[in-house]
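Cross-check.
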Amino acid sequence: MKLNFLLVLLSVLFFSLISVNLDARPGYWQMEVMYDIEIDFDVEKHRFTGKQEVTLTNHSPEALDRVYFHLYYNAFQPNSMMGMRAANIVDPKHNMGNRISRLKPNEVGYHDIKKITMDGEVCEFQITETIMDVFIPYLIPPGQKVTFYLEYESQVPLQIRRTGRENEEGVVYSMAQWYPKLAQFDHRGWHAHPYVGQEFYGIFGNYDVKINMDSSYTVAAGGVLQNPQEVGHGYSDDLDQVVADENGKLHWHFRAENVHDFAWAADTAYTHSTYQTEDGPLFRFFYISNERTSHNWEKLPEILETALTYIENRCGEYPYPEFNVIQGGDGGMEYPMATLITGERPLTSLVGVSVHELIHMWYYGVLATNESIYPYMDEGFTTYITEETMNHLARLELLPRREWKPLAHSDRMAAYINFAREGNEEPMSTFADHFQTNSAYVISSYTKAALMLVQLQYIVGKEALDKTLLDYYEQWKFKHPLPDDFFRLAERVSGLNLKWFQNYWISTTNTIDYGVDTIFGNPDGSTSVILVNNGTIPMPIDLTVYVDGTPYYLNIPLVITHGHKKVDDGMEYMLMQPWKWTNPMYELQLPFSLNQVSRVVIDESGRLADVNPMDNIFPKPRVTD
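Predicted model, tokenized:
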């Protein structure tokens, strides 16, 4: 085939991305919930009593004959499913192993449900592990609103996984998954899976939370404090002295709107500082001050504001009034309007975990895809934007010893390729708790999922992907999108068919492996380039051909995309005939003599997740010992 040297960039100058209808899919609905929780905390026994109203509005087309509640604390007991999973998996998380099996009675977690009613009528219930099956007195028809009332006593477990007391850095309470939480009901039915280690899926609604606690504790939470003048602790400057009740307790009152969870933490030694971003949320920081790390926490607010500006440009506007960075937990874990992170870190690590958890506010918090089934839709997207944001901060020289390195050229790409070569991959479509190894879960949900967006950028072009990410947030915020919703949107923005890519990358462990097979001169003075697909995932090919030292940028689309990318970060491409994915080889005929063609490179950008990139270049690079 003859090379067409008509520069398609002339048409690119008039290229505009397809506008997208921002309505959700036809027939869409979601449940609605309101929590009114009050707990009385005993810091001596690490227990609390709770009274809780949960108002559920059934927006589904079905009449509900029962409801389920999550009782996450029950996982922290010997012989629990979480304990058995952690003890028997071949690569347990560093903080897990068989620790749950060694918990003493005063160290376990539990929810002891004393009473539950629906609209005043007593309900029978059955608890199995971390799930409470509630047998309701009558059906809840479509459109009906009902209120459940619960009374319970709970014990906070030792810090092992996300929630608990007395973490490794001395924070007394990290209160995540701490209350009976109504399970999600959607188009797939009830999501009442036992808690065995991975993440969550909840119903959007409003939380009104009252915490009665010893006055020596500063409480940090993923909500807006309603009574700052009554509690002090850095929330108000108007107090000369905090006045506790007759039991020595303060009464904290928080509200959070349009969220699907509520987390908090408490310690007697917290430093509480605030930072008001320009035209954005109020940042609050809660950390234990010491000479090793305080200077890093003091630098964090301004860096995080710079990150926020960049993230909003990439992902959309942050929708909440506050974001709280709280030292606690056992690593880094996101909750609406808040994150619990370990805080004794070098500056770059502290910024990195804070940025990652901040970005979770978009994908975990606002988009809120079901992480028990599609963990990659949060973790992978968050990882992709994290790497982009950290590179942005590095370019601004805000991070010491942070090298600017695109995700495609990072250690994550190498980790994925090595893992795939070793045959240890599991499909991204695996349910989060059902991966055979933790390493497969991490590679799939974080690394390969982030590289999915890199591959998508390679297929559709940077401009189309950037617009897709912005439109995805605007269309699906607060609506629990599915993977199909994202890919359908990407198709509409790019004008390309992407179902083949979605299937290969998510549902299989197939791999990409293209190569330059041979180059030879023809009798008519032209040169033939033979490309080969040695892998099991087809991809379009960006090919750079150097003729007398001058690069020409070619794009070989796939037949199954029914089109080609229009522009890619301003790059000019010459469009070639499409490659039929059923053909393992592709011949390109160049109107130059063989001695004029000095170099041919598949994917000079380095984005293609090719498991054998050494054969992507002609002449092949020399391998040195």
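The mean pLDDT is 94. The first helix runs from residue 9 to 12. Passed to J.P. for a second look.
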